[in-house]
Amino acid sequence: MSQSKSGFSLKQQLGRGKQIAGMTTTIAGGLRAAQRIGAFKQPPREKLPRYIQAFCRKMAGSFGVQVVAVERVEQHHGLWVSNHVSWMDIPVVGTLSPAFFLSKAEIGDWPIFGKLAHAAGTVFIERGSGDAGTVAAQIATFLTKGFSVIFFPEATTTDGKKIKRIHGTLLQAAIDADVPVRPLVIAYVNKDGTLSEALPYYGKLTMKQSLKKVLDSKDVTAFVLPLEPIDPKGLSKSELTDLLQAHMQEGLAELHSRVLTKAAKV
Fold it and tell me: What's the pLDDT tens digit per position in 177-211?
């Protein structure tokens, strides 16, 4: 098979080109939908989740990743959380969760993606001095208005084999707003039932390297398992953090037992 100067085959180049074209088409479609429903002027939060879910499913699909809910993901209000394996987690959880994403305020000024983020009702966080307690207060205010938020409490990505230590500061928002914490766990699985090594984005891997690995991957499924919600009533932030840590660790082990082959289980 012919090789390019960069060492990649023509087949790989064509595959990447097809996926990038699909991503571009999805973004263009998202911009058109946002314009149609007036999301650039004032995001209609009540109707946005279904548009976001459709967009995220198409975005994941443009990278060749199929999103499968192992059990039905109920569309209820709360503070949603997920384990964090890859930048692909955003379209994956966005496909299934009715929650809005958090973002640093400066991302709202980015061309194209900033416009999409605004139209998608993203909760832009003003970090100021970097006080996480202030961020939690901003999230709590949003939650009390009846809108859900999702974030990744590990605060960093992993290889997908385990749950890292949960950072519980932002969980204070669920306590203050008196809403349940709704965890999800994700596993990226190859066709042969093994955990994907192409999708995790962690360690010293650069974004460019990760993007190439994802574009060259084939037949990866993102399996998502919703876990039982946690009622924060009567719990301290520390107790809620410990409970969520155990809940997500058990949940990820359960997901792996259900979607990985016997030889591949971790």
Answer: 999 999 999 999 999 999 999 999 988 889 889 88
The amino acid that residue 89 corresponds to is D
Question: What is the per-residue pLDDT across 11-38, written as a single tens digit (0 to 9) for each?
Answer: 666 656 666 776 677 777 777 877 787 7
DSSP string, the chain: --B-TTS-BHHHHHHHHHHHHHHHHHHHHHHHHHHHTTTTTS--TTTHHHHHHHHHHHHHHHTTEEEEESS------SEEEE----TTHHHHHHHH--PEEEEEGGGGGSTTHHHHHHHTT-EEE--TTT-HHHHHHHHHHHHHTT--EEE-TT-S---SSS------GGGHHHHHHT--EEEEEEEEE-TTSSBPSSS---TT--HHHHHHHHHH--SEEEEEEEPPPB--TT--HHHHHHHHHHHHHHHHHHHHHHHS-GGG--
Q: pTM, whole model, 2 decimals?
A: 0.85
